[in-house]
TrEMBL record, chains A, B:
<feature type="binding site">
    <location>
        <position position="287"/>
    </location>
    <ligand>
        <name>substrate</name>
    </ligand>
</feature>
<feature type="binding site">
    <location>
        <position position="353"/>
    </location>
    <ligand>
        <name>substrate</name>
    </ligand>
</feature>
<dbReference type="InterPro" id="IPR012131">
    <property type="entry name" value="Hstdl_DH"/>
</dbReference>
<keyword id="KW-0862">Zinc</keyword>
<feature type="binding site">
    <location>
        <position position="239"/>
    </location>
    <ligand>
        <name>NAD(+)</name>
    </ligand>
</feature>
<feature type="active site" description="Proton acceptor">
    <location>
        <position position="353"/>
    </location>
</feature>
<protein>
    <recommendedName>
        <fullName>Histidinol dehydrogenase</fullName>
        <ecNumber>1.1.1.23</ecNumber>
    </recommendedName>
</protein>
<feature type="binding site">
    <location>
        <position position="284"/>
    </location>
    <ligand>
        <name>substrate</name>
    </ligand>
</feature>
<feature type="binding site">
    <location>
        <position position="139"/>
    </location>
    <ligand>
        <name>NAD(+)</name>
    </ligand>
</feature>
<feature type="binding site">
    <location>
        <position position="440"/>
    </location>
    <ligand>
        <name>substrate</name>
    </ligand>
</feature>
<keyword id="KW-0560">Oxidoreductase</keyword>
<feature type="binding site">
    <location>
        <position position="386"/>
    </location>
    <ligand>
        <name>Zn(2+)</name>
    </ligand>
</feature>
<keyword id="KW-0368">Histidine biosynthesis</keyword>
<feature type="active site" description="Proton acceptor">
    <location>
        <position position="352"/>
    </location>
</feature>
<feature type="binding site">
    <location>
        <position position="262"/>
    </location>
    <ligand>
        <name>substrate</name>
    </ligand>
</feature>
<comment type="similarity">
    <text>Belongs to the histidinol dehydrogenase family.</text>
</comment>
<dbReference type="InterPro" id="IPR022695">
    <property type="entry name" value="Histidinol_DH_monofunct"/>
</dbReference>
Amino acid sequence: MTLTAAPLRLATTQPDFDARFTERLHWSAEQDDAIEGRVRDILADVRARGDAAVLEYTVRFDGLKVDSLSALELNAAELKAAFDALPVEQREALTQAAARIRRYHEWQKTQGGATATYRDEDGTLLGQKITPLDRVGIYVPGGKAAYPSSLLMNAIPAHVAGVQEIIMVVPTPVRGSVATGGTGDATATRGERNELVLAAAHVAGVTRAFTIGGAQAVAALAYGTASVPKVDKITGPGNAYVASAKKRVFGTVGIDMIAGPSEILVLADGSTRPDWVAMDLFSQAEHDELAQSILLCPDAAYIDAVQREINRLLLTLPRAEIIAKSLNGRGALIHTRSMEEACAISNRIAPEHLEVSSSEPHRWEPLLKHAGAIFLGAFTSESLGDYCAGPNHVLPTSGTARFSGPLSVYDFQKRSSLIEVSEQGAQQLGRIASVLAHGEGLQAHAGAAEMRLKR
Amino acid sequence: MTLTAAPLRLATTQPDFDARFTERLHWSAEQDDAIEGRVRDILADVRARGDAAVLEYTVRFDGLKVDSLSALELNAAELKAAFDALPVEQREALTQAAARIRRYHEWQKTQGGATATYRDEDGTLLGQKITPLDRVGIYVPGGKAAYPSSLLMNAIPAHVAGVQEIIMVVPTPVRGSVATGGTGDATATRGERNELVLAAAHVAGVTRAFTIGGAQAVAALAYGTASVPKVDKITGPGNAYVASAKKRVFGTVGIDMIAGPSEILVLADGSTRPDWVAMDLFSQAEHDELAQSILLCPDAAYIDAVQREINRLLLTLPRAEIIAKSLNGRGALIHTRSMEEACAISNRIAPEHLEVSSSEPHRWEPLLKHAGAIFLGAFTSESLGDYCAGPNHVLPTSGTARFSGPLSVYDFQKRSSLIEVSEQGAQQLGRIASVLAHGEGLQAHAGAAEMRLKR
């Protein structure tokens, strides 16, 4: 059977466009009761038994034959050794990407995040104090989805925010273990490590690193154990167990977001080379079969040209099978009446990645309200943003760009309000507070305000 | 039996201080499986059946005998009428509080939240675009905990952020209904409305208002029904059902936070009148029996004086019984070695409200790392902040000030990254991205970067 990739072809003029497009967009993060139940048990167990429970799950799921959690800690020298052992080209790419990511996030810090106050006319001081979190945990997936770029994108903003301790967890399952789909005989004292991930941890300035994963690692970070320090917030992607565990510990610690499948939406006016656009659609589709790649374009002939390039380029790629499944199952090439209509549809989708592949991207950008990241112009492929343009690649998926944004420096800071009411201010404010407190039936609130009034 | 209030008396020099204090602090938001199950069913039902399901639950729980959801919508004229009918003193207090809250949040908006970009040396443009959410839902509790101030604190930041549609839901249960602890015969077409809440909705500029509540109201806002528009984010406090529902729809929509019992921590150097401090401790304790009021002070004689004022003032208050239960069960008066030690203990607690009741509050403020709001000096009673100082009174509880802050304008905005790579920039970035993408096994990512390189 020849491998082909044919995204659903639609036109907004079709009478059934809305229904068919809605159906194609549909993706639901249904909660799996079985996973939820197992995660709840693992969290409770780690909370109760600490290190011993984490160790048992790591032996059972990752197939690691170790007898203490300290054997699962990687020290700074090991991270540095991983970096030093890389080919020079990879060392330089990691270092340059980190420098660009750091520079963007340092700029971002200046755009908000400074402690500031003002005084009103009666001398009352109001404002907010910005401080970094003390300690954060970064989850890094092991196995096939081990992305060193993810580590940079999570750890560098934390570092720039001023977080003092960055604790990384990354599972290193043994081949043949439960975590890798095997039966799980624990025989090795050391699992499969991804050297690029360890090198990235060195570059990003991770404080401590543990080779643990799954719900048990999330629990260790959220509750703390004898070996793993309790953190204030956990960020980073993971599988369904990790996502369920993060959602469950939300409130005990902060979390970043629950990510769905990755998405790209390309708005094209027909001026970009069609092979570039085809490859950009592929670069999202290659993540996994549920990833979604959509092209919106008012030029039907251009859409034909992109489809031809999809056909031509597909088999040049090692991940052609995943790409084909993703494009056939979830992709769409949509002929719109105009670029304006394309922008309106984009707002309805609120895509994670939005490429404005146009010769006049600044004409369309003001029309775009909801997106995780907006890539302007033909040279701005989404993959440049994934690695090294500077802005964060951790972005809201599944339409959550309607209410949230990229991971940022701000996620690793928090605000405290500052209020200093002057004696004079207490007279005016006290009277307002007293009336409203009595209206709410809270007489001690009223009393505290009234006591500060001059007799 | 005479009512007395005796918060636990501790000294940091006691050998068992840590253990006893930790025990007193303990509060756990255990999830109630029965509530979780019922909430899951209600959410699924509203998602499937929309208005009909919301209506059925409102009839069943709130005892309202109505046959369409439109009968549960309050129009702008009704909100205005509620405002117009208030005593002039309450009208003025609401208006002045709203003006002060608006002014603070307008200032806050200038401290972050502006779209900005910069270009690096190769012409690549980077930055972030800030836009308001389109539509938000505000949950306002009905019954005994109906606080108009909460509505101001939720709706005004949304308004200042630029949100176009603010949808309020507030249950108006009939006396004797299930929601008010009765048996639930639906006989009335109209439940108990809190006129101050409706007036506050008028002042705050709410767009639409529905008299629905509970998990069914959260579901209606999260999924949308024929009558209730789907929102992007839901904020506002509620009971255990509302909290569970909000946690469950998190991801479909944004939510603010899951609030625990209210807390106040007073750091006192002994310079504030002890009756003022006693009343400030009461003003948190009167919220509910689980609220926590703690005094930290290096002066034992001053602590004695505060305890005497507690004894003297307690019976002057209508809510004395709740205050006594809260102080006896969860309160603490702690003798510290020094103000420095008191600050360190405060950081460990990360309190929601932190009063620095000192003659030199700016000496201690820099030592305070974690708190929702910091009230400086003797005149700054927490109750002034609750109603009208300006900063938000929706604050992180249960130690979550370690990683989160007050509700803010920023909660009603979101960011999108902006990236425009120049042709020249694509050369440098493309080589870095290509190396890293190949390292991660993502060849289409590499391909998209490589295609933009000059041959």
